[in-house]
Amino acid sequence: MRAVVCRSFDDPAATRVEDIDAPPLTDDGVRLRVHTAGVSFANLLVLTGRHQNRAEPPFTPGTEVAGVVLACGPRVTRVRPGDRVVAGVRAGGQAEEVVVPERTVYPLPDAVDFDQAVHFPTIYATAYAGLAWRARTEPGETVLVNGAAGGSGLAAIEVAKCLGARVLAVAGTDAKLDAARRHGADVLIDRRAGPVPQAVLDATGGRGADVVFDPVGGDAYRDAMRCIAPDGRLLLIGFASGEIPSVAANIALVKNVTVIGLYWGYYVGWARVPPPPGTEARVHAALATLLGWCADGRLRPETCARFPLEGFREALAMIESRAVIGRVALHPVPWAPAAAR
Ligand SMILES: NC(=O)c1ccc[n+]([C@@H]2O[C@H](COP(=O)([O-])OP(=O)(O)OC[C@H]3O[C@@H](n4cnc5c(N)ncnc54)[C@H](OP(=O)(O)O)[C@@H]3O)[C@@H](O)[C@H]2O)c1
User: Fold this and answer.
1) 185: CB partners within 8 A, 6+ apart
2) Residue 93 pLDDT grade (very low, low, confident, very high; cuts 50, 70, 90)
3) Residue of minimum CA distance from atom 43 in ligand 1
4) With b meaning 16 or more CB within 10 Å and e meaning fewer, what string describes 7-19?
5) Ligand 1 mean position, distance from CA 167 (Å)
6) Looking at ligand 1, which residue's alpha carbon is closest to its atom 18?
7) What is the atom index within ligand 1 of the atom nearest the CA of 45?
8) Residue 13: its pLDDT value, please?
């Protein structure tokens, strides 16, 4: 099969599309024909050895895949060949085929196509786990979303709206602010136009945001700490700015703020320590809820560009240059709209 293969963290040219053997089927594994593989900011970190989910070269990147089941191991009970599914994988997704443990495979409603589907196993799932499970966002609360037009930012806006929150979205270009508006943000904050904390305080009657969803870090984190409400919850999602901020424990103390770390991979078994019993069922219920919301039109994943497998470098360059709104998709097999549903 054709696959993107990384052979060195130091030499980007050593990552290319190669012909390699398809992975062997395991007893609890599901072999997929990959129609869409997600490309994400995290791939940039993985390909340079800077991600917590570190693989050693040679490896194939890609953690989000959607496609059709080709074969199942003998212990698989929930899906069968021909099913349309989406799956999260620790690595290996940017390839024509992948073998995924059954526990991270989720059946797709007919109304959700493959490009939409790859937004779910990581970024909508992270938004849901952060806002619903960890921050316990209540209807009527205010959620501030940093990096609001990125993949996780748009997902967070939509999930927060589904939870009944009022959403303040921070972004840095007109096109990104417009995307945040289209995806349901109630208040748009242009970070070029003036201090973000003042804009948040103005939009909340001086109280601040009850919940912050921060995939950016650096200045965006520091700004959020200045305008989070008393009893607020700040979700640490990622550091797209490249700067891991310090916690500002003094502000956390005086404002009764809870700073919450969140790694979605822990819930799907990618961390060193496994999650507690019952987590698999909880994850499946969350994915079913999210895919149901998508089938109902309440979630509208946005794919801003599509490339064949050989276009993975251009896809990564788009992410690196901050040109992406929502997600970029790779199509390992030629895209056929009829087959995508
Ligand atoms: N914790 C988890 O389980 C989890 C799950 C998913 C993603 N993540 C992490 O979350 C982070 C964001 O992921 P994403 O998929 O949302 O990324 P993305 O689509 O590339 O969006 C990141 C946003 O951050 C803003 N940004 C500010 N400074 C930036 C910089 N120097 N370079 C790039 N973007 C910058 C940009 O918005 P403006 O241009 O408007 O400022 C951009 O839209 C990554 O670190 C990723 O690894 C973590």
Assistant:
1) 145, 148, 157, 167, 168, 169
2) very high
3) 150
4) eebeeeeebebee
5) 18
6) 150
7) 47
8) 87
What residue type is assigned to position 253 of the chain? L
Task: Indicate the range of 42-51, 83-92, 252-261 predicted with least confidence.
Answer: 42-51
Domains of the chain: 2-119+302-331 (3.90.180.10), 122-265 (3.40.50.720)
Q: Which ligand 1 atom is nearest residue 265's CA? A: 3
Contact between residue 212 and residue 234 where contact means Cβ atoms under 8 Å apart? yes
Looking at the predicted structure, is the pLDDT value of residue 338 above 70? no
What is d(CA 174, CA 276) in angstroms, rounded to the nearest whole number? Answer: 43
Q: Residue 226: exposed, middle, or buried by beta-carbon count in 10 A (0-12, 13-18, 19+)?
A: middle
For residue 304, report the distance from its CA to the centre of ligand 1, in Å.
15
Mean pLDDT value of segment 290-318:
97
Longest dimension (CA), the chain: 60
Ligand 1 centroid, distance to 147 Cα (angstroms): 6
CA 239 to centroid of ligand 1, rounded, Å: 7
* Statement: the pTM of the whole predicted model exceeds 0.85: yes
Place 53 in a pLDDT band, splitting at 50, 70 and 90. Answer: confident
Residues with a CB atom less than 6 Å from ligand 1 = 40-42, 45, 122-123, 126, 147, 149-153, 171-172, 176, 215-216, 237-242, 262-264, 319, 322, 324
Mean pLDDT in residue range 21-46: 96
Percent of the chain's residues with pLDDT above 90: 94
Q: Mean pLDDT across the stretch 222-230?
A: 98
Contact 71, 31 (CB under 8 A): yes
